[in-house]
Amino acid sequence: MGRDKQRILLLNPPGDKNYLRDGYCSSVAKGDYFFPPADLLAISGVLGDERFDVFIMDCIAEDLLPADVLNSVEANRAEAVIAQVATASKDADLRLLKEIKTVFPGIKIMVNGEYALKAPAEVMLRNSFIDAVIHDYTSAEIGAYLSGEDKAYATITRRASTGIEERSGDLGAEMIFAGIPRHDLIRKELYRLPWAKRHPVTCVITSFGCPFNCAFCVAGTYKYKKRDIESVIQELKSISGLGIKEVYFLDSLFTGDKKRTIDLSRRMLEEKIDITWSCLGRVNTYDEDVLAAMKSAGCHTIQLGVESGSDEMLKKVRKGFFVADIEKAVKMANKYGINVDGFFIIGAPGERKEHIAATIDLAKRLDFNLVSFQLAMPLKGTDFEKGSLLPDVAFDDAENAVSINENFTIDELKKLQQKANMAYYFRPAYILRQLFRVSGWSDFKLKAAQALKLLIPSKSSFKPVAGRKEFRDVLERYRKHSFRTYWYMRLKRSFYDSWMWEILYRLPSVGKIYDLGSGFGLLDILHAEMGRGRIFVQGLDMDEKRTRIARQVAGENLPVRFMIADALNVNFADADAVVVTDFFHHIPYELQNRMIERIYSALPAGGRLIIKEITGKDVDPLKYYFAFILEKLLYPFDKICYREEAEFRGYLEKLGFSRVEVKNIPPHNIILCEK
After folding, report:
1. pLDDT in tens, 396-426
2. Tell me, which fold does domain 469-674 have in CATH?
3. 636 cis-preceded (ω within 30 degrees of 0)
4. Which has the closest alpha carbon to 384: 365, 363, 401, 360?
């Protein structure tokens, strides 16, 4: 009898934003789009032989929670997890991996993503639950490591019996997949791209690294290597067989080798593969022969890293071409009926207002199909990172962006970014052109959503919980015990969708939680139900009727208990986290502070306090006053003690919490405090 296949989870962890963790970059989707996890699909091909049985969880696309990951690891008997970890989401990513290791101590945890690349040993020393860091997600060494081969690795830093062994040697020039990447393991209906001509859509990787060395890009720090064309053709045939009609070639540089690009395009045409496609290119890596071959094979869009409209800035970031070259390349692609999308950077070191003005002018003059004005980021291992003095903090190129430019604050750069988007997308000629290009109602909705998200950046996007099976099951229990409470909750489903996922995402999936002001107990019962015995929840409330209903619904089998108690008299010594939802504003500021101080003193290092509160008119004045009036109607004799966000945050930081993060969900804020 042969050895059973090793079960491997390929994990794109949960996130409260649309994090993009692929290609050793770290960003947040600016518009209403999301594509499959290309790195993990590539790894599914690398592990495509008889030794492994892989499954993929794209938690971002599926709105999954940390508890879902733990449940899946258990149900699928995973023996190893390969997880994407990005700087933008590192705190939550690492916290989840630690919980996985706590519950399943024998499991191997491998990290892929740009966060750990620069100093893998340092990251592993700080996070003892990480067994290995992957330096090349297309390397066959991933399979060798998982199979237990004890040797020196060129593409893996690992935890060995003698300590941490950093990778050594050349990364290698081969890119060999043992099997076809498993596009059948992702939910193809969840992905959308505003520039796609057809749907469903997926991603394909045909090369790794980049032969150029731009100052801001990770790809140029890796040796450029290419996958065998016939291997790519087999993958495209498999994709077409799954009913997928659109491919986004997510190589850092698809057009890096002119002859190969022509050969691959011709093979696609010869095989009559029914797909349309887009790719990432470069101004000085294609000519008319390349474009003609690409167009004949179904290419409709090429995306170019233009970066700047200033020759001075192009030279500073080592692009290797100038504005005149950009103009020539765009016109050449348009001649062959290929749309061009332009990617620009705002806030590179040394950039000034006149440079940014030139960038906006170039974008408008060349009239790209789509543009993206991205804020400069100090990605690991790049010159932008080497020149910055940032500590090891989580950042992205959206809400949590940082400035690496000596001439602008981050708020000034965000305003310039919004100005650039407005200047480009609000032109009547552009709007009319896009309307004429709309292929149907679905295409119109996708493009309209994309435009709105770019022009009016939202600090929150609701992730539903009311549609989950666990929520429906718990709601049914309320119907059996209190019909009135059942309908009260049923009518508030959209309200729960606006915040409950965000709380569950931040709560531990392992340990003990106290909930102050637990009310009818819905949050606690739902979390305990999803935790499957890994979590214990203690709900506290002063209302006898609500507590009685919560107890009846919870029953005796779930690890959740409800008691009537004054929180000022509760000992939180065994708490891993405390959650307080819509409670503090009912008590005076002095009592709020006393309660928070008691919680802070009791929490262990790494313990969390999660608060959901209305914290002032700055969140959303209309919703603020609506909530205030509603509170006065419900509690006419109570003083409403809202706190301003800045004051509340300052108090929590002064108290000693090492991390205080605020998530705006108007009219509320969710405040995560970590000791």
Report:
1. 555 677 888 899 999 999 999 999 999 998 8
2. Rossmann fold (3.40.50)
3. no
4. 401
